[in-house]
Design a protein that fits this description.
This protein has four helices and 18 strands. With 296 residues, it is α+β, with helices and mostly antiparallel strands.
Length: 296
């Protein structure tokens, strides 16, 4: 499960008609340099904002233009962080929504997923005779299943299912337990465990979907329904936060006659679609619905 952050942001920009004029840098730039070479300096004026489309969130403010050089640049504009950029990186001119702003909208959307959508994860614990409590990861929110390979004869697979009805292998879930029991404060209670033929018990649990990005991808977001859901949710956040107060203020929604509350109305549509898709994804997840720590 992973989905490109750059792809998700491009999809969101397309939905809000944020398609800024684009060119490429003619040279690289360090994190402290204030001059950037571009193919055609006549396309830029003081006051323009530029964003490097390379997966970073830096925005720079053009404070002057000298032939085909943008100089001086105010680096790390609008609270972003100045970083080095390679040659020929695409440059976006005056984007309606900055990369970092869209990423924040995605994070806000992710925060609204629980308890409808969760990340399914697993962790292995080693059964120890006489041990009752086993530490769970910090990300653990709810128990789904615990299985143990009880195969003795090769090819004739047998699983022990802890917490399953009729298994006589009860499971308890505990939070805010003393650190001496579980450093994470979360523990699974297994009064009865088997240590043979295998002592490994695989615990499947529900956790929060996170906005963690690894190697350019959101690690908890997958292509398809989930990514589409995230697009609609993030668009709603962006439109809600960028409403205009006066007619003709909003020139990026189709024409200069867009009036007050137009973006809020658009946001309502996208919010509704997000909630529909969230419910649809919830139905997909019902096969892995979390279970309370019920003894069975």
């Amino acid at each position: 499960m992973a989905y490109s952050q750059a792809t998700l942001i491009k999809r969101i920009r397309k939905e809000v008609d944020d398609e800024p004029w684009e060119t490429t840098a003619s040279g690289s730039i360090t994190n402290s340099a204030t001059t950037l070479a571009v193919p055609d300096g006549t396309q830029w004026v003081a006051g323009d904002r530029l964003e490097w489309d390379d997966g970073t969130d830096e925005v720079a403010l053009v404070q002057g233009v000298s032939v085909n050089n943008l100089t001086p640049l105010k680096r790390g504009h609008n609270g972003t962080t100045a970083v080095a950029h390679a040659t020929a990186v695409p440059l976006l001119k005056n984007p309606e929504f900055e990369y970092g702003e869209i990423a924040e909208a995605i994070s806000s959307t992710i925060e609204g997923l629980w308890p409808f959508v969760w990340a399914v994860s697993t962790t292995d614990i080693t059964a120890v005779a006489g041990k009752r409590f086993y530490e769970m990861p910090a990300a653990f929110l709810a128990f789904i299943a615990a299985t143990q390979d009880a195969t003795v004869t090769a090819g004739k697979f047998v699983l022990r299912r802890y917490g399953a009805k009729g298994s006589r292998l009860p499971v308890g879930v505990h939070f805010q337990v003393p650190a001496a029991i579980a450093a994470s404060g979360k523990a699974l209670e297994l009064p009865t465990v088997y240590t043979t033929p295998s002592a490994t018990i695989t615990v499947t649990y529900a956790g929060l979907v996170t906005d963690t990005v690894g190697t350019g991808s959101y690690t908890d977001i997958e292509a398809g329904l989930m990514a589409t859901m995230m697009v609609h949710g993030a668009v709603a956040w962006l439109l809600e936060s960028s409403e205009v107060e006066r007619v003709k203020d909003d020139v990026d929604q189709g024409d200069v006659g867009v009036g007050p509350a137009a973006r809020v109305r658009d946001a309502s549509y996208f919010r509704s679609r997000f909630e529909q898709l969230r419910r649809q994804y919830n139905l997909k997840l019902e096969a892995t619905a979390p279970r309370a720590g019920v003894w069975r």
